[in-house]
Amino acid sequence: MREVIVGAAQLGPIARDEPRTSAVGRMIALLERAAERGCSLVVFPELALTTFFPRWYMEDQSEVDAWFESEMPNAATRPLFERARALGISFYLGYAELTIELGRERRFNTAILVDGKGCIARRYRKVHLPGHAENEPWRAFQHLEKRYFEAGENYFEPADVLGARIALAICNDRRWPEVYREAALRGAEMMLLGYNTPLHYPPAPEHDHLQAFHNHLVMQAGAYQNGMWVVGVAKAGREEGCDLIGQSSIIAPTGEIVAMCSTLGDELAVATCDLDRCAEIRANVFNFRRHRRPKMYPLLSTDPDEWRPLHE
Ligand code: CDV
Predict the structure, then answer these.
(1) In this structure, which residue's CA is closest to atom 1 in ligand 1?
(2) Quick one: average pLDDT of 17-26?
(3) Structural domain includes residue 312
(4) How do the residues of the chain divide into helix, strand and coil, expressed in percent and rounded to 5?
(5) For 182-203, what is the mean pLDDT?
(6) Ligand 1: which residue has its CA nearest to atom 6?
(7) How far is residue 215's CA from residue 251's CA, in Å, rounded to a whole number?
(8) Ligand 1 near 171 CB (within 6 A)
(9) Is there an atom of ligand 1 within 6 Å of 197 CB?
(10) SS3 state at 208
């Protein structure tokens, strides 16, 4: 048995004017609870330091940039890094990243995995950015991730932390089966995911009542079909008038939910995750080497418009 005790550290709403130091204080309180329960890995949500700012249209770039972190750790987050290091806890943290690369400013929706010594073991930039790039006043609230972030171009390569192969993804990524499969083919045993998912989806409100179902459906399927642990963690509750789903969960490689938050506030769900259980699935139904037929799925990683004229 290779066991990791994992804490899914759900956050309740963060107000627009709530300072990062307050959000960090709430995260440290969850970290302390996680330590009491023996956790060595704690997962926080997507964009965990601030309110979910893509719900507002902003033209002034300095106003936008106020939501971003240009270094990590920084003055606001250093207490979290230091407390986690003192407790020997690894953690996943989502935040808005502003960096200078390729000679220009770049902005990403980012998650990091910090090891028990306080070092960043993996930085992941969200690949699937939902929403839109222009103001759409007909919506009850905006979802401007396509305006404020560039899409990440990192693969789902797991990091070796706590004796486990751990991959990262963010929110909308969890709806895409390719994400889990790519990570699993790279040897991931656990997928960590933070999310901010509104109950109301303006382009298809007829699906609003299915939000919680779809949340679990995709993560449970991702876990089972790839024989990996999945830890999905929400920022939940009514945030600036927008209802966000909760149900942060730890899901076994069999697809079963083994721990789940039951409130929409700051809450910790804990489970002992035996990494060797991945083999229950990967040595059987989803033994990739024996049963997978990659040659039969060429369009999965090809632009269909480029592929078809050459091969059909
Ligand atoms: N933060 C997100 O990526 N939210 C999306 C919503 C907009 C559908 C999600 O997939 O949960």
Answers:
(1) 196
(2) 98
(3) no
(4) 35, 30, 40
(5) 98
(6) 197
(7) 12
(8) yes
(9) yes
(10) helix
The Å distance, Cα 54 to ligand 1 centre, comes to 11
Query: Per-residue pLDDT tens for 145-179?
Result: 999 999 999 999 999 999 999 999 999 999 999 99
C-alpha neighbours within 13 Å on the C-beta side of residue 249: 22
What is the extent of the structural domain holding 204? 3-306
Is residue 126 within 8 A of residue 106, CB to CB? The reply is: no
Look at residue 235 and tell me if it is in a domain. yes
Q: Mean pLDDT over residues 287-302, rounded?
A: 94
Output the pTM of the full model. 0.97
126 in contact with ligand 1, CB cutoff 6 A: no
- Residue 311 falls within a domain, yes or no? no
* Catalytic residue numbers, as ranges: 46, 126, 171
CATH code for the domain of 56: 3.60.110.10
Tokens 């943290």 found at: 93
Is residue 202 in contact with ligand 1, taking CB distance under 6 Å? no
